[in-house]
Hints:
Helices cover 79% and strands 0% of the residues. It is an all-alpha fold. α3 (61-84) packs across α5 (124-149), α4 packs parallel to α6 (157-190) and α5 packs antiparallel against α6 (157-190).
Amino acid sequence: MLTDLPNLLTLSRIGAIPILVALVALRQPGADLAACLLFSLAGFTDWLDGHFARRRRQQSDLGRMLDPIADKLLVGATLMVLAGEGRLTGGMLYPAIVIMLREILVSGLREYLAGIRVGLPVTKLAKWKTGFQMGALGTLLAGDPAARLLHLGFLPVTAIGGAMLWAAAVLTLLTGWDYLTAGLRHASGAMGLDH
């Protein structure tokens, strides 16, 4: 049901997106810090909704549909606003492109496989990818000006976020390849090409 706590937490991630985009568009260190905190909170709800769904036995088809959509919307919007505001510097646009393409690939594979009633489970490596990705995006949202605001100007926050984004992109390629080969294996079996 839409009003179950896990689904409300998932919907809160979608609701956070316009606020996050508006905060980044302000181009103020305080707003960047608020965007980082909002993104971090939204990322935490991703874990929290699954936790509550399992604990309260409120897992539903609606939740299984909404959860990955909310995740992809949050990550996609964040990457796009960072790129649009010119904050993906020094080659950071390339790992961002890899991450976006992988999200589209996995979404398409999941949609196809759902049609033939095959699930595509989340791997441990994919969870690591998500961790690096969310950490990188939160760090990049804060940026160096927010670090200076907190008197942490000695920390190269943008460089750290960029390194984490590259690590996430490498894990993205590995997990994307895993998902693609699993999807093709199921697709070839469904088409009767398996011998």
